[in-house]
């Protein structure tokens, strides 16, 4: 029996951990999975709602770290996770994605001699000003098993000198959750509640510090969104960080005069129902670039770079940066149908968790 600590810390982790947990439970003779929630995200809308929507049980262990500076948050997770590893003595620590919880728990495992598997290994934005980029590079460099979502990630790791024997192309586990829940999300009445019809609205999300912490940048994006909303309404579920910044910079008033509708962050099923009916998505999220790729929804990424270049290669995603003119030009190109058909990347097929478990099942090298 392999005892596995599955680490979930922040919103984008939950839909990656859920299918792995479910698959390990199906293989109950082989795996004993324990969900450790670091508590990096803690609001109901940012955390609990995802556990219930994704059919995950309450976390077995919650470290309850909460918000703090990146250093303090990372250090606190490490301090609280060490005794968990000590008492549970796992065979594997499985970390997903690139948030502070990912590197914090991986580093503890490395120092305690426990094997680490990193799900979503090998992604690089090549922008070290991004906190997630540091988390990605460091986590990959100390992991024993690098489970990659796309062939570009394998190529990146090999280029960085990683031994080929550690790398496994397993596909995108977040897409397992998407495909599992697409049908059931039809039960959500979010579109009715908001009074919108599929294909006649856009969706936006913003939370990157580089976009929302600087007044001028955020003002430019907000201006572009207000302008686009003269063509079609934009639904904007607002991350707590962004809510605070819009208020601090007095930009919420600009939006209240437009057809951009600010709403609270949504749970997994409501949000899936929302974006799956969108004509256009404008975002700085990593995951949403991938989710729109699978559904063939045009996505404009409001960043200068992406660690998910395959979404651009497939044709669904365009990097537009934060220049309002560029955002408007690409938004109108999409709305006017001047975009070509997109494709789905290999192994984004809903079976990544099976492949991940197959790899973890293999006897230790
Ligand atoms: C984190 C991840 C980011 C991911 C994002 C998804 C890191 C470095 N960043 O960014 O990669 O895309 O999650 O949301 O790990 N807050 C609340 N309630 C919560 C959580 C946060 O109000 O449940 C507020 C707090 O004011 C907090 C701020 O949001 O200070 C930022 O939270 P934090 O966890 O530091 O980073 P995110 O911006 O959410």
Residue share in helix:
40-55%
What CATH calls the topology of the largest domain is: Rossmann fold
Instruction: Kindly estimate the percentage of residues that lie in beta strands according to DSSP.
Output: 15-25%
How far apart are the first and last residues' alpha carbons, in Å? 17 Å
Shape type: globular
- Which stretches are low in confidence, meaning pLDDT under 50 for 5 or more residues running? none
Structural class: alpha/beta
Counting DSSP E segments of at least 2 residues, the number of strands comes to 13
3D structure, described in words:
The protein has 17 helices and 13 strands. The chain is of the alpha/beta class and 365 residues long. It has 2 domains: 2-172 and 348-361, Glycogen Phosphorylase B (Rossmann fold, 3-Layer(aba) Sandwich); 184-335, Rossmann fold (3-Layer(aba) Sandwich), CATH 3.40.50.2000. It has a 7-stranded parallel sheet, sandwiched between helices. Strands 10-9-8-11-12-13 form a 6-stranded parallel sheet, sandwiched between helices. α2 (48-53) links the parallel β2 (31-37) and β3. α3 (70-88) crosses α4 (100-111) and α4 (100-111) runs parallel beside α5 (131-142). The longest helix has 19 residues, at 70-88. The chain is globular. The two termini are 17 Å apart. The mean pLDDT is 97. Uridine-diphosphate-N-acetylglucosamine (UD1) binds at residues 10-12, 40-43, 46-47, 67, 98-100, 131-132, 207, 239-241. The site of uridine-diphosphate-N-acetylglucosamine has 19 residues, from α1, α5 and α11.
